[in-house]
């Protein structure tokens, strides 16, 4: 994963994306994520796979534009969720704190 991330960052720098506006990159993230949803709606697993990959690429670039790495973003997220408790409700995991807020 580290080698792939480094390759993506190098590619992005070669294209000048490291100096581009993060707001524009966020639009690319949303565009690619929309393609994932459309692929799921059509039941096209190969397109889902491609869309998830494209979304990850756009997120790696967005992190880089903010002086962050994908790894440190994932580490922070993992630190927050690793001990999280909650329950599945209608196929969606709802964290305990959200369950308490809805009471």
TrEMBL record:
Gene3D superfamilies: MazG-like. This is NTP pyrophosphohydrolase MazG putative catalytic core domain-containing protein.
């Amino acid at each position: 994963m580290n080698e792939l991330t480094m390759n993506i960052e190098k590619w992005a720098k070669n294209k000048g994306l490291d100096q581009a506006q993060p707001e524009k990159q966020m639009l690319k993230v949303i565009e690619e994520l929309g393609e994932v949803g459309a692929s799921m709606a059509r039941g096209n697993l190969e397109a889902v796979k491609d869309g998830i990959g494209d979304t990850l690429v756009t997120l790696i670039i967005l992190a880089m534009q903010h002086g962050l790495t994908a790894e440190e973003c994932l580490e922070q997220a993992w630190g927050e969720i690793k001990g999280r408790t909650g329950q599945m409700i209608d196929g969606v995991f709802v964290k305990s704190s959200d369950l308490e807020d809805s009471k």
